Structures are given as C-alpha cells and as structure tokens.
Amino acid sequence: MTARATTLLAALLAALLLLGFAGRSTPEGADRGLLIHSTIGGASAFLFVVDPQTRNLAAYEATPGENGGLRLLGARKIEHDLELKKYRDLSAYSAEELGKLKGAIDGDGKAPPETGRSGG
Asked: Domain for residue 83, yes or no?
C-alpha cells in the first residue's frame, strides 16, 4: 500500500470515528452533527471538524506509516470569527457592493455597471 493510500485510509478511519461521535445524542436528546472536511497533503491528510452547536473548530493531521497517527493541530471557538464582517477579504466585491448588486438585480432584472475591486 502506498503512503498516499495509507494516509487516505487513516483520514477515512478518523472521519468515521468522528462521525460516530457526531451521531451521539446530547443529554437533552437533540442530535448533534459535526461538519467534517478532509484534504490530502503531500505526505499526510488534514481533517477539519466543526461543531455548529458549540461553534468549535478543530484541525487534525493524519500521518501514515508505522509511527503515524492522528495529531491535533489546533482548536478554537469560532463564534466571534463568524461575527466578523470582513477580515483579509480579497473578494472582487465588498458585502455592501454585493447587497447593492442584488438589490438592483432583484428590483429591475438588470445589473448595475461594474464598480471594481473592493481592495480587501
């Protein structure tokens, strides 16, 4: 088995393990789903887990091989991150410009002229 295949298998197993935890019910009886995303890097896989209820984010690295495993890279509460209106935004339009575009399109069916890049 290649290192890449082993990494993918480790990431898949970690995701399944975390999905098992996600399927558990909270004491109040409400289901608590986790959002899980995985990417394959050069020699390892990265797993991102978000708990929408508590707004916590955790990042893990799954490494293959005999000495490989799952390593916690970092975790944080993202509640206030999600309240940010803008932070290092390199989008072509600001949120305000998009709102104006949407209003113009919804109002008369025609888009206003290009306003250019917002400048982040």
From this structure: no
65 close to 6: Cβ distance less than 8 angstroms: yes
CA–CA distance, 78 with 83 (Å, rounded to integer) = 9
- CATH number, domain of 41, equals 2.20.25
pTM above 0.70, yes or no: no
Q: How far is CA 39 from CA 54, 60, 76, 109, in A?
A: 23, 11, 19, 39
Range of the domain at 43: 3-78
From the list 19, 23, 71, the residue with the least C-alpha distance to 49 is 19
Please write the tens of the pLDDT for every residue from 62-117.
888 888 899 999 999 999 988 888 888 899 988 888 889 988 888 765 555 565 55
